[in-house]
Amino acid sequence: MSQIGQDPEQPALAVATARATAAVTGQAPETKRPVGSRIRRGVGQFILSIPLLMLMVWTLAPFLVTVSVSFKHRADVFAHPGLIPTNPSLEAYSEVLSSDSFITSLINSVVVGVGTTLLTLAIGVPAAYAFARWRFRGRHLLLLFTLLPRLVPSLGLMVPIYRLAVAAGLLDRRLTIIVVYTGMLLPLAVWLMVGFFQQIPREIEEAANVDGASLWGRLRYIVAPLATPAMITIGVLAFREAWNEFTLVLVLTSSPGKRTLPYELYLMQGIEGIANFPGEAAFTLLTVLPFVLVYTRVEKYVVAGLISGSGK
Question: pLDDT tens digits, residue range 138-164?
Fold first, then answer.
């Protein structure tokens, strides 16, 4: 009888023990969720994962097909359309790497990309700092006008830029390409850097000003180190745009020694009209590989710079 009378008190005793344990350890007691709640949560997570899976397929499918084609022979591209090559070969990579046009275009792309990056940072950082720190009439309107070059498609600028380059005698020069690319990238660079500079407390610069630091001293030793993530972000974006640009280099270059990688990839289809799909796939992967390697090294700085620059 006594054992039967104590059974109803067991749940209450368990609850009291759990509360006492939580009070001592500082952790709340675990509670089991109802089965219906767990099912609804699982269904919700599955629904949310569908767009992610679609994005992964959309992104990876062309890349995997390109990798597969690059290891095939020309005759196997359509004869064996499977993703895994039946007779893998490095012939396409050997053909591309042994080509003088690839090496020359690679050097041109590196020079144009690095030059565009440095010139964009050299002009964009001081301009963004002026917009963020100085108060002058028409500042917001002028900052808005800097976006105008980004609103015009590059196809609409091909003829005007070509005529200007011909009139100035600057056609078929890498410096001309660097200057044109910089002009197209400065609006984006200025806008991102303005948002970042506005988040840097003014008190830091005011304290340095009291200590006798000049304007360029504050910009070099205080602002620039704090703005390193944003500057890396601008550098990566500028290098990527210069690395992939095709329409403008198409009208600004005429000699084979000044062409960049996208232009050479466009010219891979011969006069006979027969496409070399394995060679084009290998050329594409070798073109993308340097940028991917650089981006994986600075990815965290790029993300930090984009997040900081977006909060204005």
Answer: 777 777 777 777 777 777 888 889 999
